[in-house]
Every structure is written in structure tokens, then in C-alpha cells.
Specification:
The complex is a heterodimer. Chain A is built from no helices and eleven strands. In chain A, the strands form two sheets. In chain A, strands 2, 4, 5, 6, 9, 10 and 11 form a seven-stranded mixed β-sheet that branches. A four-stranded antiparallel β-sheet of chain A has the order 1-3-8-7, with no helix packed on it. Chain A starts with a strand and ends with a strand. Helices cover about 0% and strands about 50% of the residues of chain B. Chain B is built from no helices and twelve strands. Classes of the chains: A mainly beta, B mainly beta. Chains A and B meet through strand 5, strand 9 and strand 10 of A and strand 6 of B.
């Protein structure tokens, strides 16, 4: 099956610093990737839709300037949490959309655990 | 808007018991329906899917049938194993924006 990787798998940073999380589709090209946030024991909350070569589309309530998304190639999207604060600590999951007609679906990365001290 | 309602957990079963996790949805049009599984500390894995009414998705002994008349996509397994312990998410894709709408997730614990 299709593989999506995320790096790093976990990161601890100090308040006020920026953190970049990478999402890669390893064996297919993805024009669309999604970024989700998951709080403990809760469902996934869609943060933004990342489209290759264009600006990301953010969901209501998600700060564009805080969560910078760059989809620079068909296999890579990055999420940068700028000036991170403890309330940004969460599990961030990306997914890549594989367009295969009726067989299309999203493939999820393993997630990145961010802890802001 | 679109929504997915899942049976609240947690669900605790003994090994080899029968599992049902209920999922109902609200959507316009004809969405695709999915079950994802999340093991501790990991991302989501697609378990099974169905793209049209009366389709049955199946994988690893799990099954779910797309019931348009009852707007449901209940997950079932005849005999659960300890290794099935995880969180299960029902989700729908309306097909236009490629965005998934997730249910709240159901924690399943299978005891030996």
C-alpha cells in the first residue's frame, strides 16, 4: 500500500521557538495533503488543506500565521508551528490524497508528537 | 453540514467475542465511507472502505456494509483478538473536496 512518512516522530521545544514538521508521500505523488491535529483521546481536527504549488486552505479558527504550510513538491508538505507555546502541544497528523479514481483515498502519516515547554 | 456519529466508548471485550461499533452519518449526495484504526502512539491506518450503497468493505476479519436507507456503516468482527485493541474512527468523504469528516472515535480494549 501507499506510504506516508512524517518527520520528526516527536519533538520537544522551548516556548517561543519554531518547529517544522515534514510530511512525505514515499511512493506516489500527492497534489493534495491534509494536516490534522489530535488532542488526547479525541478525534482528528482538520487544520488545513495543502495543495501543491498554491496556498493552503485553512479551516475556520486556525491561525494562518501561526501554522505555516508549504507544499513545495508533489511528495512533500511541511507544517511550521511558529512561536510555539504550550497550548500548541499536540499530536499532528498529515495525510496525502492519492487520486486513483474510484480507488482514491487518503493515506495517513504516523503522526508527530509536539511538546512545547 | 456533513457529520459522523459513532458509538461512544470505551468498549471492553473478551478475546473471541463479537464486536459491533455503530456508525451513522449525515451527508448530502453519495459519500464514500471509511473505517480507520489507530494503534497507540501511531497515525491512522485505513481498515476498510465502501464507495456506494450496499457495498461491503472487509479487511482482517472486519466488515462494514454501506446502508443508505439507515445511513449507517457499522463495523463488525466475529471474533476479536487482543491485537485488535485500538481506537476506531468512522469517516466519510463527500467526494467533492476530498476532505474527510471523522467520528469521535471508539476505544476498543480486548482482554485475554
Amino acid at each position: 500500500g501507499a506510504v506516508v512518512s512524517q518527520h520528526p516522530s516527536w519533538v520537544i521545544c522551548k516556548s517561543g521557538t519554531s518547529v517544522k514538521i515534514e510530511c512525505r508521500s514515499l511512493d506516489f505523488q500527492a497534489t493534495t495533503m491534509f494536516w490534522y491535529r489530535q488532542f488526547p483521546k479525541q478525534s482528528l481536527m482538520l487544520m488545513a488543506t495543502s495543495n501543491e504549488g498554491s496556498k493552503a486552505t485553512y479551516e475556520q479558527g486556525v491561525e494562518k500565521d501561526k501554522f505555516l504550510i508549504n507544499h513545495a513538491s508533489l511528495t512533500l508538505s511541511t507544517l511550521t508551528v511558529t512561536s510555539a507555546h504550550p497550548e500548541d502541544s499536540s499530536f499532528y497528523i498529515c495525510s496525502a490524497y492519492r487520486d486513483r479514481g474510484l480507488a482514491d483515498t487518503q493515506y495517513f502519516g504516523p503522526g508527530t508528537r509536539l511538546t512545547v515547554l | 453540514g456533513d457529520s459522523v456519529t459513532q458509538m461512544e466508548g470505551p468498549v471492553t471485550l473478551s478475546e473471541e467475542a463479537f464486536l459491533t461499533i455503530n456508525c451513522t452519518y449525515t451527508a448530502t449526495g453519495y459519500p464514500s465511507l471509511f473505517w480507520y484504526v489507530q494503534y497507540p502512539g501511531e497515525g491512522l491506518q485505513l481498515l476498510l472502505k465502501a464507495t456506494k450503497a450496499d457495498d461491503k468493505g472487509s479487511n482482517k476479519g472486519f466488515e462494514a456494509t454501506y446502508r443508505k436507507e439507515t445511513t449507517s456503516f457499522h463495523l463488525e468482527k466475529g471474533s476479536v483478538q487482543v491485537s485488535d485493541s485500538a481506537v476506531y474512527f468512522c469517516a466519510l468523504d463527500p467526494g467533492s473536496a476530498r476532505q474527510l469528516t471523522f467520528g469521535s472515535g471508539t476505544q476498543l480494549t480486548v482482554l485475554p
